[in-house]
Amino acid sequence: MTKVLDNGFLILDFGSQVTQLIARRLREMGFYSEIKHFSTPIEQIQQKKYAGIILSGGPSSVYEAGAPYSSVKELQKVAPLMGICYGMQLICHDLGGKVESAKNREYGYKTVLWKKDIFSSSTSSLQTISNVLTPLSKDFPFGQNVWMSHGDVVTEIPSGFELLAITEDHPAAIENERVFAVQFHPEVVHTEAGEKVLEYFVKKCGAKKNWETKNMLEELNQQVLQQVRSSDHVLCGLSGGVDSSVVAVMLTRLLGKDRVHCVFVNNGLLRKNEYVEVLKSYENLGLNVLGVDASDKFLQGLKTLIDPELKRKAIGRIFIEVFEEAVASIKSQTHTEIQWLAQGTLYPDVIESVSTTGSSVTIKSHHNVGGLPERLNFKLLEPVRLLFKDEVRNLGRELGAPDAIIKRHPFPGPGLSIRVIGEVTESRLKVLREADYEFISYLKEKNLYDQIWQAFCVLTPIQTVGVMGDGRTYEYVLAVRAVTAKDGMTADWYEFKASELKEISTRLTNRVKGISRVVYDITSKPPATIEWE
Ligand code: XMP
Predict the structure, then answer these.
(1) CB of 419 within 8 A of CB of 458?
(2) Average pLDDT, the chain
(3) 412 CA distance to ligand 1 middle (Å)
């Protein structure tokens, strides 16, 4: 392993919903961090020179049989430790303190009272963070508003630890020379100045910043060079989206155009003009790209299919066929053997998350096309598998990819087929394509596009009566969806102004033939998903 990754932070995941945020915050602060399952053997952890180890929160009770466990006594010998919520409870439990079920559970906002201003050496001190000076105790005069979510509490802290902070009922932060622990969640945005709490730990570890886009790129390049031999060739499937595009640019710059063969397939389910425009921008970026127009094949394969999972399966199957043909043609034209298939897999897809309820059900069969590498006898190359989406965007910028690619909203592999509810026909696709074009153009014209994580239209199979001019119409209902999100795992609907909604509706009904009514989807994820199918 290389230097940067050796000096990062390890986050042991005990099953909290927000573990990923710890890694994110640390990376945003400039420190490489990675998440591993709580059961990762200590020998494996010792092999890497971590600057510090963080034990995440989790839904279990430390005193229950079978609760997720890792030896705190052993871990603290490897690197300085921080515990968050369950992590703090585990530290106390393992080092001789006491954890019990709370009489007063603490969920949501709470004020934590600190004994001293431990952040005073950083740019903002607790006094400036919050002016809550409590009459509760003159020994704990500094307040900080934090987010809590726990049913158990520490009732006795282990010997040798100093009590740093309390809530009105319980210890909220403790430390000794090697270990620091907090009962609340500094990683969530609801916690006031949460990054200062993480920064305090980072300083305790003496860690040096090691994660900026430039050295992130160097790091990833080195990893690729360790895998791919100098005679190897790589195939890269492009989707038009940011992840695969950034991977293609990165690999092309690193290995050269002759060794990185890109394929961009038109499945007939792209947006208006997208195939031609995106292909052009790939060529402008200097990629060695083969465009394959297979729209007819896909539309033929989608005929009569209504069930979204059947649509996805059909598209996956046809994609493999088309891809196989493209690979055969590249091989015969260039007389080369291809060993690798590059994919834009991201960190959230690879984190081994801790399930407390057994394996999770498949909501949608998402993402990369399974089965392809085995069938084509390829090895899989996933150069951005350690990155979050915003880091991939930064990488794209560093590589000089245009905003049109970097800032593009995510777009699903099955494209518009899962936004035409019911059977996908050329005529219904045409209506949706026009609507999507008008809606997205509006967002760009009003400078709203970059504030929204993903926006699109959905063509429903419902027809309703309308009146246009003097005539009666009986056309489709179009749904408009716009969401804000960080990574698509959860999402909120975007709060347009009423005047904007009015303009969107007028523009769509005036300019798009085939719709008579526009509705706005005001459901967050969960309970809904982002796409309708
Ligand atoms: P959902 O609908 O599950 O979507 O909330 C989360 C994100 O994933 C995208 N999505 C897909 N991407 N193949 C993909 O490559 C798919 O089958 C697929 N389904 C949903 C969706 O657009 C959103 O960004």
Answers:
(1) yes
(2) 90
(3) 5
Going from the Cα of 531 to the center of ligand 1, the distance in angstroms, rounded, reads 6
User: Pick the catalytic residue: 93, 150, 170, 185?
Assistant: 185
Q: Is the pTM of this model over 0.70?
A: yes
CATH class of 9-205: alpha beta
Distance 269 CA to ligand 1 centre (A): 14
Q: 348 CB under 6 A from ligand 1?
A: no
Domain parsing of the chain, residue ranges? 9-205, 216-406, 419-520
Q: Which of 461, 466, 459 is nearest to 521 (CA)?
A: 459
Homologous superfamily of the 216-406 domain (CATH): HUPs (3.40.50.620)
How many CB atoms neighbour CB 531 within 10 A? 18
Count of CB atoms within 10 A of residue 424's CB?
A: 29
Nearest CA to ligand 1 atom 11: 412
216-406 has the same fold as 9-205: yes
What pLDDT, in 10s, does the model give residues 364-406? 665 555 566 677 789 999 999 989 888 999 999 999 999 989 9
488 Cβ closer than 6 Å to some ligand 1 atom: yes
**Quick check: is 85 catalytic?**
yes
Which position among 106, 175, 187, 219 bears the catalytic label? Answer: 187
Q: How many whole angstroms separate alpha carbon 34 and alpha carbon 32?
A: 7
Q: Structurally, what CATH architecture does the domain formed by 419-520 represent?
A: 2-Layer Sandwich (3.30)
- For Cα atoms 88, 96, 204, give the angle at the middle one, nearest 5 degrees: 45
Chain segment 472-527, per-residue pLDDT in tens:
999 999 999 999 987 787 889 999 999 999 999 999 999 999 999 999 999 998 89
